[in-house]
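quick q for whoever's on today - can somebody do inverse folding on this one?? i tried earlier but teh output was garbage lol. tokens:
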């Protein structure tokens, strides 16, 4: 098929760089990756993956745990707590496990 149309897209430089590295490992360039993506949209008659807003309960759970972290001293929590909050908000760990992990991290901070 003759390629005679252009797409110009502005993206974050770091994202582009990170994706370029992955594509190099896969042995394809950005143009080929975008072509594959567009063909997948055609085949699926939509995006080839699910796109939706996070469930309100996940957002509420993350907020609840973040508030609990702040009760431990009112300090801004370290970046490593984002993983714990994420696991809890998705339901991968329960509240008690999350608080236990956070307390252990506070001891090591």
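ok took a stab at it. sequence:
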């Amino acid at each position: 098929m003759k390629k005679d149309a252009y797409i110009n897209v502005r993206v974050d430089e770091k994202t582009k760089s990170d994706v370029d590295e992955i594509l190099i490992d896969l042995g394809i360039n950005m143009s080929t990756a975008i072509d594959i993506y567009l063909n997948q949209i055609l085949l699926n008659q939509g995006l080839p993956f699910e796109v939706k807003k996070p469930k309100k309960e996940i957002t509420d759970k993350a907020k609840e745990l973040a508030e609990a972290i702040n009760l431990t001293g009112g300090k801004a929590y370290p970046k490593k707590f984002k993983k714990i909050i994420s696991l809890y908000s998705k339901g991968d760990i329960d509240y008690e496990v999350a608080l236990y992990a956070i307390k252990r991290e506070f001891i090591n901070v």
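fwiw The chain has a mean pLDDT of 81. also The first helix runs from residue 13 to 26. so keep that in mind when u check it
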